[in-house]
Amino acid sequence: MNKIKLLTIGVFTLILVSGCSNKSKLELLVESANQGDVEAQFSLGEIYLKGDGVRKNFKESFKWYEKAGVQGHAKSQNIVGWMYKSEKGVSQDYKTAVEWFKKSAEQGIAPAQFHLGVMYSKGRGVPQSYEEAVKWWKKGVEQGHAGSQSYLGDAYLLGKGVDQDDTEAFKWFKKSAEQGDLDSQNSLGWMYGKGRGVSQDYKEAVKWYRRAAEKGYAFAQNNLGGMYFNGHGVTQDYKEAVKWYRLSSSNISISARFTLGYCYLLGKGVSQDLIKSYFYFDLASIEGDEEAIKERDAVAKKLTPLQIKEAQAQVNDQKLHDELRVILRGKF
């Protein structure tokens, strides 16, 4: 099988280099893919998924990945699973996604092992099983997969599928964080800040929060704001705290919005502004947070009806903005 594949690729490459045809590279790739060349099929899937020289087309991408996956191409099988899970080019089907992830994972593809673990942890397409999730994440970490390291850290921190163990959680968060995983960088900052699995060290906490915050990770932005607000690991600086809370709030962080409500109420790092205080407390109350509702209503008593109307108009504008961001994230 390898000889045939290599021969096919070799001939295909020779055609491109020799210029023996007036056909475009894409046309030659399609021709080869239609003849069953699995690597050509995979390449076409990549091209249409990324929009590399063509208009991005998830349906066309799915078609070629599936053809390659049916032939046993492990990387394609993982992506087909992801497309079923994420409703990209095909109707969402968790059960079918699991089937494709499992085919790829059993061939040793680390991202597929990670995805399969996530499906078991959430009970999507399979009965929920943290033990099965951990089994697949452990296979992923053997290959150094950052996502698997991060989720395995969560499992140890929460005692899901394994015995609760802060030291193990810290170990896996650190490995993942060092590979640039933003969620793990935030988690590692939290571990240092709380002294869980490691000696408490606010400066290290700030360092890791900052790495993720500067990449736009909302939870880390909120946590870094908290460090500046409380003067932990950095010189207390309310203005700097507000800066990070605002960035986190723009990424739809409820916690950051709640804290900003207090900042504007008390004039911490900003000029006191009761309309903005109402605005942020109201945004934080969207999911029914009782404390946020209580603070919003308390601020409302200090405002005139006209000021409340102004604040509510700002809230409605922001809610529409938030909804559009969620929709766009779903598409792109």
Q: What sort of overall outline do the alpha carbons produce when their principal axes are compared?
A: globular
Instruction: Write the element-wise H/E pattern from the N-terminal end onward.
Output: HHHHHHHHHHHHHHHHHH
Helix content: over 70%
Which structural category fits the helices and strands? mainly alpha
Mean pLDDT: 87
Separation of the first and last Cα atoms:
38 Å
Radius of gyration: 25 Å
State which percent range the strand residues make up.
under 5%
Number of strands: 0
Our count of helices gives: 18
Largest sheet: none
What oligomeric state is this?
single chain
Spans of at least 5 consecutive residues with low confidence: 1-21, 324-332
Describe the structure.
The protein is mainly α and about 325 residues long. It has 18 helices and no strands. The chain has helices at about 1-20, 25-35, 40-50, 60-70, 75-85, 95-105, 110-120, 130-140, 145-160, 165-175, 180-195, 200-215, 220-230, 240-250, 255-265, 275-285, 290-300, 305-330. Residues about 1-20 and about 325-330 have low confidence and may be disordered.
